[in-house]
Amino acid sequence: QVQLVESGGGLVQPGGSLRLSCAASGFTFSNYHMGWYRQAPGKERELVASITNTGGSTNYADSVKGRFTISRDNAKNTVYLQMNSLRPEDTAVYYCNAKHLIATFRSYWGQGTQVTVSS
Predict the structure, then answer these.
(1) Residue 102: left if φ>0, alpha if ψ -120 to 50, beta else—which one?
(2) If 0-12 CB within 10 Å is exposed, 13-18 middle and 19+ buried, where does residue 23 land?
(3) Burial 26-47 (b: 16+ CB within 10 A, else e)
(4) Which residues have C-beta within 8 Å of that of residue 111, sequence separation ≥ 6?
(5) Alpha carbons 13 and 5: distance in angstroms, whole number
(6) Could you report the per-residue pLDDT of 43-85, keeping only the tens digit for each?
(7) What number is the average pLDDT over the span 92-98?
(8) Which of 69, 75, 88, 98 has the fewest C-beta atoms lying within 10 Å of its C-beta?
(9) Could you tell me if 22 and 37 are in contact, meaning their C-beta atoms sit under 8 angstroms apart?
(10) How far out from the chain centre does Cα 79 lie?
(11) How many CB atoms lie within 10 A of CB 106?
(12) What's the pLDDT score for residue 57?
């Protein structure tokens, strides 16, 4: 069955770094665009970063541009989010999403991983 499993979250100090991983299974990973979303308490879910199925193009929210990097390894069926220069406002549950490049209604979500940035 389809699974997206996030890992790598935790508690970090402001200015610190984390790398999130999302391991995919149960579908053809290379046929899906991937994205990282986050949701903080009392706020709407927002797209943080996305990457096309081949990794040829990436996009970032203005709030993380220059600090976060999304990447993927199709041989490992894994997408990553490298987060540097973390700020308290980055605190949220981070979710991995897969969307088919053609049949865009085919969309899957992971369970989320908590990132807390606090001193």
Answers:
(1) alpha
(2) middle
(3) ebebeebbbbbbbeeeeeeeee
(4) 4, 5, 6, 95
(5) 24
(6) 999 999 999 999 999 999 999 999 999 999 999 999 999 999 9
(7) 98
(8) 75
(9) no
(10) 7
(11) 14
(12) 98
Structure tokens at 4: 């997206």
What average pLDDT is seen over the chain?
A: 97
Closest CA to 108 of 82, 84, 86, 77: 77
Residue with tokens 């990973």: 29
Is residue 100 within 8 Å of 106, Cβ to Cβ? yes
User: How deeply is 2 buried, as exposed, middle or buried, from its count of CB atoms within 10 A (0-12, 13-18, 19+)?
Assistant: exposed
**CB-based contacts of 117, cutoff 8 Å, min separation 6:** 11, 12, 13, 14, 16, 86, 87, 88, 89, 90, 91
Q: So what's the pLDDT on residue 63?
A: 98
Rg (CA), the chain: 14
The β-bridge relationship of strands 92-100 and 32-39 is antiparallel
For range 32-40, the mean pLDDT: 98
